[in-house]
Amino acid sequence: MGKPYGRSYVLITGATTGIGYELAKLYASDGNNLILVARDEQRLRGVKEELSLYSIKVYTIALDLSEDNSCEKVLDFVDKKNISVDILINNAGLGSFGYISEIEMEKELKLIDVNIRALTELTKTFLPIMIEHGEGAIMNVASTAAFCAGPKMAVYYASKAYVLNFTEALHEEVKNSEIKISCLCPGPVKTSFQEKSGIKKSEGAKNTLMSAKDVAEIAYKDFRKGKVIIIPGFKNKLIVTLNKFIPRSLSRKIILMMNKG
Ligand SMILES: NC(=O)c1ccc[n+]([C@@H]2O[C@H](COP(=O)([O-])OP(=O)(O)OC[C@H]3O[C@@H](n4cnc5c(N)ncnc54)[C@H](OP(=O)(O)O)[C@@H]3O)[C@@H](O)[C@H]2O)c1
């Protein structure tokens, strides 16, 4: 079965702020139709209006990806509109900060639902359709946290390790096809994510973080090139490389020291 002609879309989760929002603008300015997913309906409407200056079609789906059946709802929407998701960007993600015994169970489980379950379900929903169409692309957003253990952010770091390993495995499975699979691994980025996760940073420290715009621009370019693991910024690349050469026992001590502040 061929895909509906001229009805191809880029689906971006978490597209109202931060990295997802910047990616949405880049795809829009390049003439791609968009499906934007986030919880806040009003902000989704605002982004849709903002992108109306481009001659593209924008659909929005107000949805909490931590809820059961959220991915089914996305597929239902796409089927009803008779459109096709050619590019899937699993960007929505949550963080939780603190010692494991201090963080509420509900918060951690919600994190797992969004960062792991929804990302896996959306990938498993749309990848087979892309395979059937013979083309497509998926970018999953992990973090430099994916490369190490993260005391005081244990569940978050572990969730991103899942995303990295899952995505790399899929890349290998489909690499002889026309389907591109990438994993974006940013270091700390200046978005509302830090505050929402409970990470406290001084204004000075915040100003040293990469901007979401810079991260999105690098991601956009490298994803198109088919790069498997995208680590934006020299400093982040260096940290990930150095981490490979030190024992894990030392790496986790350093992370704990950093997370203690
Ligand atoms: N910022 C960093 O330091 C950093 C570093 C490395 C990796 N990352 C990763 O990059 C990705 C994007 O982060 P960001 O910094 O751009 O975050 P952000 O500015 O907080 O944006 C998060 C986006 O996800 C949506 N979202 C949150 N929870 C959702 C849910 N339950 N269901 C549906 N949508 C939801 C938010 O909209 P609503 O609130 O309206 O739902 C928003 O559009 C995440 O996966 C994060 O883990 C971030």
Automatic annotation (TrEMBL):
Q: Which UniProt keywords apply?
A: Oxidoreductase
> Superkingdom of the source?
Bacteria
Show the InterPro entries listed in the entry: NAD(P)-bd_dom_sf, SDR_fam
Q: Which Pfam families match?
A: adh_short (PF00106)
Question: One GO CC term of this entry?
Answer: membrane
Q: Name one GO molecular function term.
A: oxidoreductase activity
Determine if Oxidoreductase is one of this entry's keywords: yes
Q: Identify its protein family.
A: Belongs to the short-chain dehydrogenases/reductases (SDR) family.
- From the Swiss-Prot or TrEMBL record, give the protein name: Short chain dehydrogenase
Q: Which organism is it from?
A: Clostridium sartagoforme AAU1
